[in-house]
Amino acid sequence: MKTLKLFLIALLLFHVLSSSIINIQIIKTWKNSTYSSLNTYGKKIIDNLEHFNIPEIIQIGMRNYSYYTGTERGYEYYSPNAANRQTEIIFKNNAVLIDLPGKTFESKFKIRSVFTILGGQLENDGFRNRVIQSMAVRLFTLHPDINHMDISIMKKHFPSLEQIQQGKPIRIQENTVYNIDKN
Amino acid sequence: MKAVLNSINNFFFGYNKNIEKKNIFIIAISTFGLLNILLILPDIYNVYSRHGIINSGINDFLIRQDQFRLTFITNAFEKIGFPYEYALAMVIALYICSFLFILMNYYRLVFAIIVLILHNALVASSYSFSYGADYMISFSLFINMILCINSKYNRVIYSFAIRLLQLQLCIIYFFSGLGKAMGNNWYTGDAIWYLVSTYTRINIITAFVATTIPVLFKIISLSVVIIELFYPVLIYNKITKNAALLYIIITHIIIILIINLYTFGAVMIILNVIAFQPKIILELKYFKRNEYITE
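^ Those are the sequences you sent over. The predicted structure of the assembly is below.
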């Protein structure tokens, strides 16, 4: 019994530590990405975390453990700021929209959330082209009757609440980037 | 020193409240996991296949090379002669059947481990589609696995599982709140407005609130930051526990209704109910009636 309890306490400590450290490591990465959009306290926290370093071997152990416990991605959802823009890839055939697949609300949500999850990465042309190619190939397979697609990037910019009071509308930009034939 | 050790021992291993409902907790987590995969089932080839909407080349670029994923299993099936599509279908079938075996209490622990491993492989293989709900389901399946351990030390293990879940929820909400508190638009209310705009089509109600009473967005987003950040304190304080739990559950219901994050909202409610066991829910007729049946 005593051995079991000691093992469980050790597991619990390791779990709490690894889960916390993973979140701290994710926050630390904001130094190189969203630092300018942090408030004064946020910047102070990041600056102080600069000295917080964990040996690589421990990090590997924690990452493997956290992978199997679902704690790997951290919990900084919509942080430090929720994005005020959204990028979507739109597929059309003869000006008719081709919907991304999704037969249930969950799979539809999952598939559409690719634009939120990949988010900033879609700003990178090379990566975005790979995503477009993969999506187009799948859509051609799902719609064998379609032989041609016009692909555009739609960017939505949401005004802040303050800007809404001044009458600024949601700005939507759509640029056709590719015309693809099946063959 | 002895008193400190005793209180640590009591905290982690002496929590036996609602232990008779352990099976209901296992059933709740497993049923939810099963429903989740059944809802994705019509699109498994779009979501999980290596030729899916996001192909495995892009997916593998986004995750760690050593991360266990579906192709590790399907490749093995292919080596013994099964076509890829059949191999993927077999993995999904095994995943679904494992949930059913857990629900039928047939080698529960074995299938709880299989479900946990397969779920993580599914999540890793669909990185671009995996959002908060998938990771929360992963964690709930980890807790499920611990709850499925059946031994003479049941009480100790049950207590450990519930305390681990409680502490993890504290970490989840604290870091979620900390991240938001470090930015700017959670203080102005813009964050909630952006999320509503991103996830839903702007309707007349949201447009009305944004233009005439934007302060409502500010109140909601500030309260989210405060409650998340102080969740660990509020939930362990006898006076504030019920109010904090009620607020969190209502928030997740609002997330379901307004932002349409059904799975995420539902799994968070399930985890909060199992962790902090509000009387008002666990004393519902359904739970009373079924606790004996499931034992």
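Chain A touches chain B through 73 residues (CB under 8 Å). The beta strands of chain A are 85-93, 96-97, 148-157, 171-181.

Shout if you want it in another format.
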